[in-house]
């Protein structure tokens, strides 16, 4: 698409609904000025012209969509490896997490056959909520990159169509092994907001979004698994926490009730898990490994191979 | 360089090397920049993970409690000190009934004795009870990590190895022998090897640990 006329027609298609009397010729003339006279590369010229019309129409860039409807590439989540691309995906909502900010309507994990990817939907986009475990055709997403991790963002032009099918989500989980060397705050017996679609962890009985609420108890461990080479942050949910500590949520509540203090649960868990060796598997989200499977390493290790290595050096 | 403050990895070090890591430094002029101990095998460390046998505890504080614990590994002793600013670790040492296996996550600290020598100790972030298989796992893991460091010691780009050459007199070979010694001490860990005497025997490595 090097021809300026083609670019002009694309831009025209994007703005013709928003700006009256917009002609392809005008757009082409603007592009021609930048490219021909000012030697601006075509991409930059198109960006500049688009910005001009965004201003004129008083629109936000993300209201545009990816250069016309239906023209995005339909991609697999694992193939997302570039920032700021407009894409379409068919994916299942694998997990929904607590948004950390009021600006975020939903955040979680999308999955398809190729693997999983974090998604974010902003409150300002005013989109229908995605349901956990449902499969959607999502059009006009934008890719995002943060410290080498790619995610997708929904925006106000994103179309959401719920599909009546299931997807076998690909396994892109990682496994880390090492000693659990630290447990972070927010571990132990916590309370979550009971509002629909809100699972935020309460701070002093307050939800960031819904204010003072009667929270629902949950158990988790946010920890660090360290093998002497890397420190991996891990999150154990209720099931894995119960499994590694042998403390059920009910027992944890009783402990807290007896002590009139929820922190006794974290203290007890800390003594049980810190210094132990674990193998933790699960999908990664940012810097966290979300533990689906946790196994304490209790089998004896054979020093022979290491001894051979040491002697041969 | 470093973007968001990432958590420092807990290095695996045997006691002799740890106690030889008397040189400390900072990577920046920032007041709050972390303090690193320079490991003689050529790495920096501001956190270590140790599994060993707690053999003795003693309250050596004057006005307030200040607990010292001796944590013994296969090749030497780590000294852990915990006072009012490490309440959980101090409480553990107060209630401990040695001997028992413990796992310690902690920061290396140095202090100068009256005679001018520098002692290295551990300021625990946590001390927890553990078991024998965890100790064995730690010995093998610490052996592997130490060998990794020794292997990288002659890399031209290894700035910490260069620093170690400048600051320390002990050859890294000492620490390779420490690794062999630690592994051989494990139950059933190749104790029947008759023809491997050169490693264990000609090492001038039995320097008893002086208590600080």
Q: What features would you describe in this structure?
A:
The complex is a heterodimer of chains A (313) and B (212). Chain A is 26% helix and 34% strand. Chain A has 313 residues and is an alpha+beta fold. In chain A, strands 8, 9, 12, 13, 14, 15, 16 and 17 form an eight-stranded mixed beta sheet that branches. In chain A, strands 2-3-4-6-5 form a five-stranded mixed beta barrel. In chain A, strand 10 and strand 11 form a beta hairpin. Chain A is elongated and about 75 Å long. The model of chain A has no long low-confidence stretch (mean pLDDT 88). By secondary structure, chain B is an alpha+beta fold. Helices cover 30% and strands 29% of the residues of chain B. Chain B contains six helices and eight strands, in the order H-E-E-E-E-E-E-H-E-E-H-H-H-H. In chain B, the strands form two sheets. Chain B has a five-stranded antiparallel beta sheet with strand order 6-5-4-7-8. In chain B, helix 3 runs antiparallel to helix 5. The longest helix of chain B has 21 residues, at 132-152. Chain B is globular and about 50 Å long. The model of chain B is unreliable at 189-212 (pLDDT under 50). The A-B interface holds A 147, 179, 181-182, 224, 226-231, 233, 270-271, 274-277, 297-301, 303-304, 306-307, 309-311, 313 and B 3, 6-12, 47, 49, 51, 102-105, 125-126, 128-130, 133-134, 136-145, 147-148, 150-151, 176, 179-180, 183-184, 186, 189-190, 196, 199.
**DSSP strand content of chain B:** 25-35%
From the 3D coordinates, which CATH architecture of chain B would you assign?
Answer: Beta Barrel
Number of domains of chain A: 3
Mean pLDDT of chain B: 88
Distance between the termini of chain B: 37 Å
Specify the structural class of chain A: alpha+beta
Helix/strand order of chain B, N-terminal first:
HEEEEEEHEEHHHH
- As a percent range, the share of helical residues of chain B equals 25-40%
């Amino acid at each position: 698409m090097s021809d300026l006329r083609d670019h002009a027609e694309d831009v025209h298609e994007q703005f013709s609904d928003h700006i009256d009397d917009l002609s392809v010729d005008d757009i082409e003339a603007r592009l021609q000025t930048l490219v021909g006279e000012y030697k601006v590369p075509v991409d930059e010229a198109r960006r500049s012209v688009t910005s001009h019309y965004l201003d004129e129409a008083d629109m936000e860039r993300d209201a545009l969509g990816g250069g016309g409807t239906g023209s995005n590439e339909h991609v697999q989540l694992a193939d997302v490896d570039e920032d700021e691309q407009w894409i379409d995906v068919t994916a299942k909502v694998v997990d929904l997490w607590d948004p950390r900010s009021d600006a975020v309507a939903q955040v979680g994990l999308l999955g398809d056959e190729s693997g999983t990817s974090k998604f974010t939907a902003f409150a300002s986009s005013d989109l229908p909520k995605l349901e956990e475990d449902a499969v959607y055709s999502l059009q006009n997403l934008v890719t995002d990159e943060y410290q080498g991790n790619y995610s997708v963002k929904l925006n106000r032009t994103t179309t959401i169509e719920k599909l009546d099918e299931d997807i076998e989500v690909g396994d892109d989980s990682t496994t880390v092994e090492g000693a659990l060397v630290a447990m972070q705050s927010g571990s132990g017996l916590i309370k979550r907001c009971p509002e629909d679609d809100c699972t935020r962890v309460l701070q002093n009985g307050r939800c960031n979004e819904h204010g003072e609420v009667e929270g629902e108890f949950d158990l988790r461990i946010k920890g660090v698994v360290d093998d002497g080479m890397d420190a991996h942050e891990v999150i154990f949910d209720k099931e894995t926490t119960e499994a590694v500590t042998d403390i059920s949520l009910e027992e944890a509540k009783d402990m807290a009730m007896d002590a009139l203090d929820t922190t006794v649960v974290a203290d007890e868990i800390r003594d049980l898990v810190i210094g132990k060796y674990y193998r933790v598997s699960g999908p990664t989200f940012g810097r966290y490994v979300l533990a689906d499977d946790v196994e304490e390493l209790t089998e004896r290790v054979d020093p022979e191979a290491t001894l051979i290595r040491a002697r041969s050096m | 360089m470093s973007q968001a403050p990432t958590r420092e990895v807990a290095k695996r070090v045997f006691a002799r090397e740890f106690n030889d890591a008397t040189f400390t430094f900072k990577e920046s002029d920032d007041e709050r920049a972390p303090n690193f101990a320079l490991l003689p095998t050529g790495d920096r460390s501001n956190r270590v993970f140790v599994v060993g046998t707690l053999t003795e505890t003693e309250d050596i504080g004057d006005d307030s409690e200040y607990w010292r614990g001796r944590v013994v590994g296969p090749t030497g002793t780590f000294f852990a000190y915990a006072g009012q600013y490490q309440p959980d670790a101090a409480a553990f040492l107060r209630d401990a009934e040695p001997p028992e296996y413990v796992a310690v996550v902690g920061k290396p600290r140095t202090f100068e004795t009256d005679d001018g020598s520098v002692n290295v100790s551990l300021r625990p972030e946590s001390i927890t009870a553990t078991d024998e298989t965890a100790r064995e796992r730690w010995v093998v893991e610490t052996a592997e990590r130490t060998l990794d460091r020794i292997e990288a010691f002659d890399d031209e780009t290894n700035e910490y190895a260069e620093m170690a050459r400048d600051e320390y007199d002990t050859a890294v070979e000492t620490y390779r022998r420490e690794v062999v010694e630690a592994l051989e001490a494990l139950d059933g860990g190749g104790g029947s090897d008759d023809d491997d005497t050169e490693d264990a025997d000609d090492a001038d490595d039995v320097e008893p640990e002086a208590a600080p």
